[in-house]
Amino acid sequence: MSTTEESPTAAQAGASATRAFRTSRQHGTAGEVTPERVSTVVTALLDGVHRTIRTHQVTYPEYVAAKRWLIEVGESGEWPLLLDVFVEHEVEEVSAQHQQGSKGSILGPYHLPGAVRLPSVCTLPMRADEPGTPLVLAGQVRDTTGKALPGAELDIWHADDAGYYSGFAPHVPDGNLRGVVVADDDGHFEISTIQPAPYQIPTDGPTGTLIERAGWHPWRPAHLHLIVRSPGYRPITTQLYFTGGDWLDSDVAKATKPELVLDPRPQPDGRRRAEYDFVLEPA
Ligand code: DHB
Ligand code: FE
């Protein structure tokens, strides 16, 4: 995909993602980072760097290239993109080790708070001529004992049919394909939207340069992002993918899990419908 006038640059997406992160309360705001943990973890991290240099006999030109690249990541505001794509999946898996309930996945850089609230049966905000195959996501939110969670919230956001997110790609209207859906008295929801396309890490910034220079690919499989919450329960941040979709087995962000793959079925009305139930554990 080439960069057109309309596609967001890495710098635009990065700057918006940095702003969103600074104002977000979603993740990692509770809990302390003690000096002991800083010392232990940073020492281990540096040991890993030093070991890599020795094992691979890293040269001065390579060190200088890495230093120049790291400076560019900072100057171009790409840290949120880079960290979420290459690091967050490991933190998510570690924190999930002792969790019950539905599987989670990474938050990623593109959540925005304050999306429009919608009833349990709804259509996400979209342009009048929104391109893409109509998709319905339906299911129920329950707790780990099987009890329905009335009024549970499903904060959902996803890319459009070209792989772009509202709030980060300037040509997509604010709030497009984002909403906070409130489940009914029996925890049920039925969300109409369109099928998102795979997402490509912006290739015009330092993250893209790295991917290209290393000979990797910049793609994430098509996905829906969700945060599912209900008072008294641990919120689940997750993503849902589509069976048979491109890049499902080689996600650049390593954020897929077999339990998170939907199998939407064509309906007589031409829409594709997928069922997915969420299970929350007590907080
Ligand atoms: C990135 C983008 C995503 O849409 C996502 O889900 C995870 C990471 C990124 O550009 O880093
Ligand atoms: Fe995403």
Largest sheet: 6 strands, mixed
CATH topology: Protocatechuate 3,4-Dioxygenase, subunit A
Work out the number of β strands.
14
Q: What are the bound molecules?
A: 3,4-dihydroxybenzoic acid, fe (iii) ion
Supply the helix-strand structural class. Answer: alpha/beta
Quaternary class: single chain
Strand percentage: 15-25%
Q: Mean pLDDT, nearest integer?
A: 94
Measure the end-to-end span: 43 Å
Q: Looking across the biggest beta sheet, what order are the strands in?
A: 1-5-4-9-10-11
CATH superfamily, called what?
A: Aromatic compound dioxygenase
Supply Rg. Answer: 20 Å
Discrete helix count: 6
Shape-level CATH architecture: Sandwich
Q: Helix coverage percent of residues? A: 25-40%
Q: What ranges have pLDDT less than 50 throughout 5 or more consecutive residues?
A: 1-5
CATH class: Mainly Beta
Order of helices and strands: HHHHHEEEEEEEHEEEEEEE
